[in-house]
Amino acid sequence: MSKLGVFDVAVRYGKVPALSDVSFTVEEGERLFISGPNGAGKSSLLKAICGAAPTSHGRIEVDGDVLNGRSPEAIARLGLTMVPEGREIFGTLSVEENLRVGTGIRRDKSAIETDIAEVYQSFPILGERRHSNAGALSGGQQQMLAIGRGLLTNPKLMLVDEPSLGLAPNIVDQVYETLVNLQKDRGLTLIIVEQSSARAARVGGRMVLLRGGKVVGDGDAAKFAESDLLNEAYFGQDNSKETA
Amino acid sequence: MNAIPQLFFDAMSLGGIYAMAALGIALIFGVMNLVNFAHGEYIAFCVFALIVPSTDAVAVMFIGKAPAILLIPMLLSIGALVAVASEFFVFRHMRNSTPVAMMISSFALGFVIQNTLLLVYSSRPKAVSLWPELNKPVSIVGASIPLLQIIVIVTTLIVVVALALLLKRTRIGLEMRAAAENFTMARLLGVRANVVITGAFALSGALAAAVALIMVTQTGVADVRMGGQIMLVAFIATVIGGLGSLPGAVAAGFLIGAASVILQGFLPLEARPFRDAFLYTLVIAVLLLKPDGLFAPRSSKPRV
């Protein structure tokens, strides 16, 4: 059974369509990149999945549960978590408080403390600064905190929106290394919005390519790097074809 | 004569009332960007809940007859209940509206409460004698001040500390602070919007009830319009404190109380009737220098 299914989904802001006819499925434990130029609808797609943007058409399912129309807090309880664009950490809360915000939905209360300790082990800098305001962390540290905060909801599926945004290249490498390791350790399903398809190809995984709110490609990220589909998606030439 | 301690106690007790009212407004603004102008009417409602519904000039105590140990929790619950009910029946249906639309509906709700009170109790201010013994002066550090002032100061401190503990140490407090900073993100992490908002309204209503108790003991009057003046000052305090900042609301409440008492004490005699004009000039000056308020919450913009 597939973990996440997106069927015929459309999202519109007022009269402006942001997504239309978007369909794909993601298997349990898979790593899926969503790529495409600015305005392709990548963030809208993630927002629709986690309940932050209403869908105007179609259906989104996780393990048979329909997500459309549910509140973001209800969707979080189904095991989806979001690491949003720009991190959106709570700057006036301490590092540890940030980590604890999402633990309210967990039933395994006893595991929370070990999970927090584990996050501090993976990101020692967060442990050192656990009592300071999260707003004072650097961009890379905030990204780690946002990932850690998402992990503490004990998710099955993690949506990560543009983790490389505004970070130095070596920090981006670290972020991806972390994500890949997490997936190995926890069997997490990952959906990552990544504008750089070269980066996606290097990390490896499947890629769904969006353009103008539609899926124009779906296949192995490494193969996209060789095909000319990417150029078409980014620079025009409207003859969309499928790559395997 | 001991003018300085006297002024100090006046300033602290007036500031305490303003601070508690401002907290009630800031709490709700924090979680739903609503400036709730019905807050003053919650205060008036709680005052009138003390007395038997009638149009007579002298009030007969109703809930007000109960001993303090019952009366206080009862009135705090009534305040919380009115606030929660107004959220349930009015503001819940406006969650996706603009802040301006919500603010205007809070005015409307305020008028509904005020006119209901007018209908039941008439517009004549009533004499209410609640705990009159608290207005007897006691002598402290050479100043002779009413016992009530000390109670107000102590109550404010207890309320502020209790609220700080609630926000810092409890699950719901953590969720409220997270929601106040970034409501959507908090919900994405599973924080239930309804629980947090209902909690904020309940606390806000209980604070209104506390202010009501203090005001009625101090003035001995129940007046349908009594919420308006304090609401205005409390709103100004939340703006000066930096909208959404709870410590800011408390600090600014005390600041306005102090400024008001100091102006009253030191303005030349012929200028004293215009004290409020001086006070609001100071407010304008503060806002010109610090448009976001004195204690605006630190921005959480992503850093690079």
From TrEMBL, chain A:
<dbReference type="GO" id="GO:0005524">
    <property type="term" value="F:ATP binding"/>
</dbReference>
<keyword id="KW-0813">Transport</keyword>
<dbReference type="Pfam" id="PF00005">
    <property type="entry name" value="ABC_tran"/>
</dbReference>
<dbReference type="InterPro" id="IPR003439">
    <property type="entry name" value="ABC_transporter-like_ATP-bd"/>
</dbReference>
<dbReference type="InterPro" id="IPR017871">
    <property type="entry name" value="ABC_transporter-like_CS"/>
</dbReference>
<feature type="domain" description="ABC transporter">
    <location>
        <begin position="4"/>
        <end position="237"/>
    </location>
</feature>
<dbReference type="InterPro" id="IPR027417">
    <property type="entry name" value="P-loop_NTPase"/>
</dbReference>
<dbReference type="GO" id="GO:0015807">
    <property type="term" value="P:L-amino acid transport"/>
</dbReference>
<keyword id="KW-0067">ATP-binding</keyword>
<protein>
    <submittedName>
        <fullName>High-affinity branched-chain amino acid transport ATP-binding protein LivF</fullName>
    </submittedName>
</protein>
<keyword id="KW-0547">Nucleotide-binding</keyword>
<comment type="similarity">
    <text>Belongs to the ABC transporter superfamily.</text>
</comment>
<dbReference type="InterPro" id="IPR003593">
    <property type="entry name" value="AAA+_ATPase"/>
</dbReference>
<keyword id="KW-0029">Amino-acid transport</keyword>
<dbReference type="InterPro" id="IPR052156">
    <property type="entry name" value="BCAA_Transport_ATP-bd_LivF"/>
</dbReference>
<dbReference type="GO" id="GO:0015658">
    <property type="term" value="F:branched-chain amino acid transmembrane transporter activity"/>
</dbReference>
<dbReference type="GO" id="GO:0016887">
    <property type="term" value="F:ATP hydrolysis activity"/>
</dbReference>
Automatic annotation (TrEMBL), chain B:
<dbReference type="GO" id="GO:0022857">
    <property type="term" value="F:transmembrane transporter activity"/>
</dbReference>
<protein>
    <submittedName>
        <fullName>High-affinity branched-chain amino acid transport system permease protein LivH</fullName>
    </submittedName>
</protein>
<keyword id="KW-0472">Membrane</keyword>
<dbReference type="Pfam" id="PF02653">
    <property type="entry name" value="BPD_transp_2"/>
</dbReference>
<feature type="transmembrane region" description="Helical">
    <location>
        <begin position="15"/>
        <end position="35"/>
    </location>
</feature>
<feature type="transmembrane region" description="Helical">
    <location>
        <begin position="141"/>
        <end position="167"/>
    </location>
</feature>
<feature type="transmembrane region" description="Helical">
    <location>
        <begin position="277"/>
        <end position="296"/>
    </location>
</feature>
<feature type="transmembrane region" description="Helical">
    <location>
        <begin position="100"/>
        <end position="121"/>
    </location>
</feature>
<feature type="transmembrane region" description="Helical">
    <location>
        <begin position="230"/>
        <end position="256"/>
    </location>
</feature>
<dbReference type="GO" id="GO:0006865">
    <property type="term" value="P:amino acid transport"/>
</dbReference>
<dbReference type="GO" id="GO:0005886">
    <property type="term" value="C:plasma membrane"/>
</dbReference>
<dbReference type="InterPro" id="IPR001851">
    <property type="entry name" value="ABC_transp_permease"/>
</dbReference>
<comment type="similarity">
    <text>Belongs to the binding-protein-dependent transport system permease family. LivHM subfamily.</text>
</comment>
<keyword id="KW-1133">Transmembrane helix</keyword>
<keyword id="KW-0029">Amino-acid transport</keyword>
<dbReference type="InterPro" id="IPR052157">
    <property type="entry name" value="BCAA_transport_permease"/>
</dbReference>
<keyword id="KW-0812">Transmembrane</keyword>
<feature type="transmembrane region" description="Helical">
    <location>
        <begin position="42"/>
        <end position="63"/>
    </location>
</feature>
<feature type="transmembrane region" description="Helical">
    <location>
        <begin position="195"/>
        <end position="218"/>
    </location>
</feature>
<keyword id="KW-0813">Transport</keyword>
<keyword id="KW-1003">Cell membrane</keyword>
<feature type="transmembrane region" description="Helical">
    <location>
        <begin position="69"/>
        <end position="91"/>
    </location>
</feature>
